[in-house]
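Q: My labmate handed me this sequence with no annotations at all. I'd like to see what the chain might look like in three dimensions before we decide whether it's worth expressing. Could you predict it?
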Amino acid sequence: MAPPPHRRALLLLPLAFLLLLVAPPRADAWGKEGHIMVCKIAEKYLSEKAAAAVQALLPESAGGELSTMCPWADQVRWHYHWASPLHYANTPEVCNFKYSRDCHNSRGEKGMCVVGAINNYTEQLYSYGKKTSYNLTESLMFLAHFVGDVHQPLHVGYAEDEGGNTIVVHWYRRKTNLHHVWDVSIIDTAIKDFYNRSMDTMVEALKMNLTGGWSDDITHWENCKNKRSTCANDYAIESIHYSCNYAYKDVEQDITLGDDYFFTRYPVVEKRLAQAGIRLALILNRIFDGDEADGIPLQVQ
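A: Here is what I predict for the chain of 301 residues:
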Protein backbone atom coordinates (compact mmCIF):
# COMPACT_ATOMS: atom_id res chain seq x y z
CA MET A 1 0.00 0.00 0.00
CA ALA A 2 1.38 3.43 -0.91
CA PRO A 3 2.04 5.79 2.01
CA PRO A 4 -0.31 8.75 2.53
CA PRO A 5 0.48 11.89 0.48
CA HIS A 6 2.06 13.80 3.37
CA ARG A 7 4.37 10.88 4.11
CA ARG A 8 5.49 10.62 0.49
CA ALA A 9 6.09 14.36 0.46
CA LEU A 10 8.38 14.21 3.44
CA LEU A 11 11.15 12.58 1.46
CA LEU A 12 10.21 12.22 -2.18
CA LEU A 13 9.51 15.75 -3.41
CA PRO A 14 12.08 16.89 -5.99
CA LEU A 15 14.48 19.50 -4.65
CA ALA A 16 13.65 21.90 -7.48
CA PHE A 17 10.01 21.90 -6.37
CA LEU A 18 10.94 22.25 -2.72
CA LEU A 19 12.87 25.41 -3.47
CA LEU A 20 9.70 27.01 -4.83
CA LEU A 21 7.80 26.51 -1.60
CA VAL A 22 7.78 29.33 0.90
CA ALA A 23 7.15 28.99 4.62
CA PRO A 24 7.62 31.56 7.38
CA PRO A 25 10.88 31.07 9.27
CA ARG A 26 10.88 30.11 12.93
CA ALA A 27 13.63 29.92 15.48
CA ASP A 28 15.40 26.57 15.63
CA ALA A 29 14.68 24.19 18.48
CA TRP A 30 17.66 23.86 20.77
CA GLY A 31 20.70 25.54 19.28
CA LYS A 32 23.34 23.46 17.54
CA GLU A 33 24.88 22.62 20.91
CA GLY A 34 21.60 21.37 22.35
CA HIS A 35 20.98 18.98 19.46
CA ILE A 36 24.55 17.69 19.58
CA MET A 37 24.26 17.06 23.33
CA VAL A 38 21.01 15.12 22.91
CA CYS A 39 22.63 12.82 20.38
CA LYS A 40 25.87 12.43 22.33
CA ILE A 41 23.79 11.10 25.20
CA ALA A 42 21.77 8.84 22.91
CA GLU A 43 24.91 7.35 21.33
CA LYS A 44 26.04 6.02 24.70
CA TYR A 45 22.79 4.10 25.24
CA LEU A 46 22.41 2.48 21.82
CA SER A 47 22.33 -1.30 21.75
CA GLU A 48 24.92 -3.13 19.67
CA LYS A 49 22.43 -3.72 16.83
CA ALA A 50 21.15 -0.16 16.90
CA ALA A 51 24.66 1.30 16.93
CA ALA A 52 25.61 -0.85 13.92
CA ALA A 53 22.50 0.20 11.98
CA VAL A 54 23.08 3.87 12.78
CA GLN A 55 26.67 3.57 11.60
CA ALA A 56 25.50 1.96 8.36
CA LEU A 57 22.96 4.72 7.70
CA LEU A 58 25.08 7.75 8.57
CA PRO A 59 26.60 9.67 5.65
CA GLU A 60 30.37 9.63 5.32
CA SER A 61 30.47 13.27 6.39
CA ALA A 62 29.24 12.27 9.87
CA GLY A 63 32.61 10.75 10.71
CA GLY A 64 30.86 7.86 12.38
CA GLU A 65 29.08 10.03 14.96
CA LEU A 66 25.32 10.55 15.01
CA SER A 67 25.78 13.74 17.03
CA THR A 68 27.49 15.51 14.13
CA MET A 69 24.31 15.14 12.05
CA CYS A 70 21.74 16.07 14.68
CA PRO A 71 21.65 19.80 13.74
CA TRP A 72 21.21 18.80 10.05
CA ALA A 73 17.44 19.30 9.90
CA ASP A 74 17.88 22.96 10.85
CA GLN A 75 20.70 23.43 8.38
CA VAL A 76 18.59 22.24 5.42
CA ARG A 77 15.43 24.15 6.26
CA TRP A 78 15.98 26.63 3.44
CA HIS A 79 15.93 23.70 1.00
CA TYR A 80 13.23 21.62 2.69
CA HIS A 81 10.70 24.39 3.32
CA TRP A 82 7.90 21.84 3.61
CA ALA A 83 9.56 20.52 6.78
CA SER A 84 9.28 23.78 8.75
CA PRO A 85 6.06 22.82 10.58
CA LEU A 86 7.60 19.47 11.53
CA HIS A 87 9.83 21.16 14.10
CA TYR A 88 7.00 22.15 16.47
CA ALA A 89 3.35 21.96 17.43
CA ASN A 90 1.13 24.80 18.62
CA THR A 91 -1.85 24.85 20.95
CA PRO A 92 -4.64 27.47 20.93
CA GLU A 93 -3.26 29.13 24.09
CA VAL A 94 -4.20 26.19 26.32
CA CYS A 95 -1.91 24.13 28.54
CA ASN A 96 -2.68 20.78 26.97
CA PHE A 97 -1.75 19.10 23.70
CA LYS A 98 -4.25 17.15 21.60
CA TYR A 99 -2.97 15.50 18.45
CA SER A 100 -6.28 15.74 16.58
CA ARG A 101 -6.53 19.46 17.30
CA ASP A 102 -2.92 20.62 17.27
CA CYS A 103 -0.89 18.44 14.88
CA HIS A 104 -1.24 20.14 11.49
CA ASN A 105 0.48 22.73 9.33
CA SER A 106 -0.84 26.16 8.34
CA ARG A 107 -2.89 24.55 5.55
CA GLY A 108 -4.59 22.21 8.00
CA GLU A 109 -2.80 19.06 6.79
CA LYS A 110 -2.97 16.53 9.62
CA GLY A 111 0.19 14.94 10.97
CA MET A 112 2.40 17.86 9.90
CA CYS A 113 3.86 18.68 13.31
CA VAL A 114 6.76 17.43 15.40
CA VAL A 115 4.78 14.54 16.89
CA GLY A 116 3.57 13.36 13.48
CA ALA A 117 7.11 13.69 12.12
CA ILE A 118 8.62 11.54 14.88
CA ASN A 119 6.04 8.83 14.34
CA ASN A 120 6.41 9.01 10.57
CA TYR A 121 10.20 8.77 10.44
CA THR A 122 10.17 6.03 13.05
CA GLU A 123 7.79 4.06 10.85
CA GLN A 124 10.06 4.62 7.84
CA LEU A 125 13.07 3.31 9.75
CA TYR A 126 11.22 0.08 10.53
CA SER A 127 11.77 -0.74 6.85
CA TYR A 128 15.55 -0.92 7.44
CA GLY A 129 16.92 -4.07 5.85
CA LYS A 130 13.95 -4.37 3.50
CA LYS A 131 13.31 -3.00 0.04
CA THR A 132 12.11 0.57 0.47
CA SER A 133 11.72 3.80 -1.46
CA TYR A 134 12.56 5.90 1.60
CA ASN A 135 15.89 7.64 2.09
CA LEU A 136 16.59 6.07 5.47
CA THR A 137 19.70 8.18 6.02
CA GLU A 138 17.52 11.29 5.98
CA SER A 139 14.86 9.48 8.01
CA LEU A 140 17.43 8.85 10.74
CA MET A 141 18.73 12.42 10.74
CA PHE A 142 15.24 13.90 10.80
CA LEU A 143 14.17 11.57 13.61
CA ALA A 144 17.20 12.35 15.76
CA HIS A 145 16.59 16.07 15.34
CA PHE A 146 12.83 16.01 15.94
CA VAL A 147 13.13 13.96 19.13
CA GLY A 148 15.30 16.80 20.40
CA ASP A 149 12.80 19.38 19.17
CA VAL A 150 9.76 17.94 20.92
CA HIS A 151 11.61 18.16 24.25
CA GLN A 152 12.25 21.89 23.95
CA PRO A 153 9.22 23.16 25.88
CA LEU A 154 8.42 26.09 23.63
CA HIS A 155 8.26 23.85 20.59
CA VAL A 156 4.92 22.91 22.01
CA GLY A 157 3.80 26.43 22.83
CA TYR A 158 1.04 28.86 21.98
CA ALA A 159 0.08 29.53 18.37
CA GLU A 160 -0.62 33.19 19.16
CA ASP A 161 3.02 33.99 20.00
CA GLU A 162 4.57 31.28 17.79
CA GLY A 163 6.05 29.41 20.71
CA GLY A 164 7.48 32.55 22.28
CA ASN A 165 9.02 33.87 19.07
CA THR A 166 7.03 37.11 19.21
CA ILE A 167 7.65 37.75 22.91
CA VAL A 168 10.55 40.21 23.05
CA VAL A 169 12.69 39.93 26.18
CA HIS A 170 16.14 40.91 27.41
CA TRP A 171 18.34 38.03 28.47
CA TYR A 172 20.39 39.94 31.00
CA ARG A 173 21.54 42.82 28.75
CA ARG A 174 20.93 41.24 25.36
CA LYS A 175 17.68 41.76 23.46
CA THR A 176 16.20 38.54 22.11
CA ASN A 177 12.91 36.63 22.23
CA LEU A 178 11.59 34.06 24.67
CA HIS A 179 11.88 31.20 22.21
CA HIS A 180 15.56 31.92 21.64
CA VAL A 181 16.14 32.01 25.39
CA TRP A 182 15.04 28.39 25.59
CA ASP A 183 16.72 27.33 22.35
CA VAL A 184 20.09 28.85 23.03
CA SER A 185 20.54 31.41 25.81
CA ILE A 186 19.98 29.20 28.86
CA ILE A 187 22.34 26.54 27.48
CA ASP A 188 24.99 29.09 26.47
CA THR A 189 24.87 30.74 29.88
CA ALA A 190 25.24 27.38 31.64
CA ILE A 191 28.16 26.33 29.44
CA LYS A 192 29.89 29.65 30.10
CA ASP A 193 29.21 29.92 33.83
CA PHE A 194 29.28 26.29 34.97
CA TYR A 195 31.37 24.35 32.46
CA ASN A 196 34.27 26.62 31.50
CA ARG A 197 32.78 27.20 28.04
CA SER A 198 32.99 23.48 27.23
CA MET A 199 29.95 21.74 25.77
CA ASP A 200 31.63 18.35 26.26
CA THR A 201 32.02 19.04 29.98
CA MET A 202 28.31 19.77 30.20
CA VAL A 203 27.54 16.54 28.36
CA GLU A 204 29.64 14.60 30.85
CA ALA A 205 27.78 16.26 33.72
CA LEU A 206 24.45 15.23 32.21
CA LYS A 207 25.70 11.66 31.80
CA MET A 208 26.77 11.60 35.45
CA ASN A 209 23.27 12.69 36.47
CA LEU A 210 21.83 9.87 34.36
CA THR A 211 23.86 7.30 36.30
CA GLY A 212 23.28 9.14 39.57
CA GLY A 213 20.41 11.45 40.44
CA TRP A 214 18.17 10.51 37.50
CA SER A 215 18.95 6.79 37.43
CA ASP A 216 15.70 5.83 39.14
CA ASP A 217 13.69 7.96 36.70
CA ILE A 218 14.97 6.50 33.45
CA THR A 219 12.70 3.46 33.50
CA HIS A 220 9.69 5.80 33.67
CA TRP A 221 10.76 8.17 30.90
CA GLU A 222 9.47 5.94 28.08
CA ASN A 223 6.17 4.82 29.57
CA CYS A 224 3.22 5.13 27.21
CA LYS A 225 0.52 2.90 25.75
CA ASN A 226 1.76 2.69 22.16
CA LYS A 227 5.52 2.27 22.19
CA ARG A 228 5.71 1.58 18.45
CA SER A 229 4.45 5.13 17.93
CA THR A 230 7.38 6.40 20.01
CA CYS A 231 5.47 8.01 22.89
CA ALA A 232 5.97 11.35 21.09
CA ASN A 233 2.44 12.42 21.99
CA ASP A 234 3.37 12.07 25.66
CA TYR A 235 6.54 14.10 25.13
CA ALA A 236 4.48 16.93 23.62
CA ILE A 237 2.09 16.85 26.57
CA GLU A 238 5.09 17.19 28.88
CA SER A 239 6.46 20.11 26.88
CA ILE A 240 3.29 22.20 26.95
CA HIS A 241 3.21 21.60 30.71
CA TYR A 242 6.75 22.96 31.02
CA SER A 243 5.91 25.85 28.69
CA CYS A 244 2.99 26.94 30.85
CA ASN A 245 4.60 26.38 34.24
CA TYR A 246 8.14 27.54 33.48
CA ALA A 247 8.76 29.15 30.07
CA TYR A 248 5.77 31.51 29.94
CA LYS A 249 5.32 31.92 33.68
CA ASP A 250 5.84 35.52 34.90
CA VAL A 251 7.01 36.64 31.43
CA GLU A 252 5.65 39.67 29.58
CA GLN A 253 6.76 41.77 26.63
CA ASP A 254 10.08 43.61 27.11
CA ILE A 255 10.80 42.02 30.47
CA THR A 256 14.40 41.51 31.54
CA LEU A 257 15.17 37.91 32.46
CA GLY A 258 18.19 37.32 34.68
CA ASP A 259 19.42 35.13 37.52
CA ASP A 260 16.01 34.34 39.01
CA TYR A 261 14.69 33.04 35.71
CA PHE A 262 17.94 31.27 34.79
CA PHE A 263 18.40 29.37 38.04
CA THR A 264 14.76 28.22 38.20
CA ARG A 265 14.54 27.21 34.54
CA TYR A 266 17.96 25.69 33.92
CA PRO A 267 17.09 22.43 35.76
CA VAL A 268 14.18 21.98 33.32
CA VAL A 269 16.52 22.44 30.34
CA GLU A 270 18.98 19.93 31.78
CA LYS A 271 16.28 17.35 32.32
CA ARG A 272 14.75 17.81 28.87
CA LEU A 273 18.12 17.40 27.15
CA ALA A 274 18.76 14.21 29.11
CA GLN A 275 15.27 12.85 28.48
CA ALA A 276 15.58 13.53 24.77
CA GLY A 277 18.87 11.63 24.60
CA ILE A 278 17.58 8.64 26.53
CA ARG A 279 14.33 8.50 24.58
CA LEU A 280 16.08 8.78 21.23
CA ALA A 281 18.22 5.78 22.20
CA LEU A 282 15.14 3.85 23.29
CA ILE A 283 13.37 4.57 20.00
CA LEU A 284 16.37 3.53 17.92
CA ASN A 285 16.93 0.40 20.02
CA ARG A 286 13.30 -0.59 19.54
CA ILE A 287 13.51 -0.02 15.78
CA PHE A 288 16.68 -2.00 15.22
CA ASP A 289 16.36 -4.65 17.97
CA GLY A 290 12.68 -5.32 17.36
CA ASP A 291 10.65 -6.84 20.19
CA GLU A 292 13.87 -7.80 21.96
CA ALA A 293 14.47 -4.15 22.87
CA ASP A 294 11.86 -4.09 25.64
CA GLY A 295 13.61 -6.96 27.39
CA ILE A 296 17.07 -5.39 27.18
CA PRO A 297 18.00 -3.08 30.09
CA LEU A 298 19.05 0.37 28.95
CA GLN A 299 22.73 0.78 29.80
CA VAL A 300 25.80 2.72 28.79
CA GLN A 301 27.70 0.88 26.06
